[in-house]
Specification:
2 domains; five-stranded mixed β-sheet; 5 strands; 10 helices; alpha+beta; Beta Polymerase, domain 2; globular; single chain
Length: 232
């Protein structure tokens, strides 16, 4: 009997349409001890959905720090403006892309909408509350998470202003890494966060982003891929 884990990972090996490097290396914030974080998209062949046991929506591996979404799950998350998924679609470090992966990248703006403003702020606010909680308990915040909170706000601000998220923040590398090392006082971090939040709010009215994502365009793409996967 085959190992179900090995069977699942064959989906990543045989049916990945997009594989990118994300994390610190894509952000321009890598240091000597940084991991290589890989994110990808695979397509489960349509016949697998005819079984009682459906294919996985996501998979870890087979490489260390590698995570992949099945195409439909990625589309759902991207339509909801999930920052991690949008970073995958806009990563400048593409390791593998198939013709279907190129089609996905060609429609990536269809996922975008003004709801990203709310989603990015919510993710950042969650990290800020954790920092506040640690400080109230006289503990040491996870400064790496705080750094990524600020990076996320910079990405969200670029998205609201221009219609595209910002992945590479290397021009602010020194300041971000100072946050990661815990060298910026909490009140300075808070002032930075507050300023970015206010700028995001101020940019919303003039944003080129549509009110809602183009769900129909994304669904048409997904159906097309499912049909083509019938004979895989």
């Amino acid at each position: 009997m085959s190992d179900p884990v090995s069977t699942d990972l064959r989906l990543v090996r045989d049916h990945t349409i997009l594989s990118v490097v994300t994390g610190s290396r894509a952000y321009g914030l890598a240091t000597a001890d940084s991991d290589v974080d890989r994110r990808g998209v695979f397509v489960a062949p349509a016949p697998l959905y005819w079984r009682f046991d459906k294919p996985p929506t996501h998979l870890d591996g087979p490489l260390p720090e590698q995570f992949s979404w099945e195409l439909e799950r990625l589309c759902e998350l991207a339509l909801a403006a999930n920052p991690t998924v949008l970073e995958c679609l806009w990563s400048p470090l593409v390791e593998r892309v198939t013709p279907i992966g190129e089609e996905l990248l060609a429609i990536r703006t269809a996922f975008l909408s003004r709801q990203a403003h709310r989603t990015f702020l919510r993710y950042a606010d969650s990290q800020f509350r954790k920092m506040q909680g640690d400080l109230r308990k006289d503990g040491e915040p996870n400064w790496k998470h705080v750094m990524h909170m600020l990076r996320l706000l910079h990405s969200g601000l670029r998205l609201v202003r221009t219609g595209e998220p910002l992945v590479d923040v290397g021009d602010l590398r020194d300041r971000f890494l100072a946050v990661k090392r815990g060298e910026l006082p909490p009140d300075e971090v808070d002032a930075w966060r507050t300023g970015l939040t206010a700028q995001m709010q101020g940019a919303l009215d003039a944003s080129p982003l549509p009110e809602l994502p183009d769900r129909d365009r994304v669904e048409d793409f997904l159906i097309s891929v499912r049909r083509r996967s019938l004979d895989w």
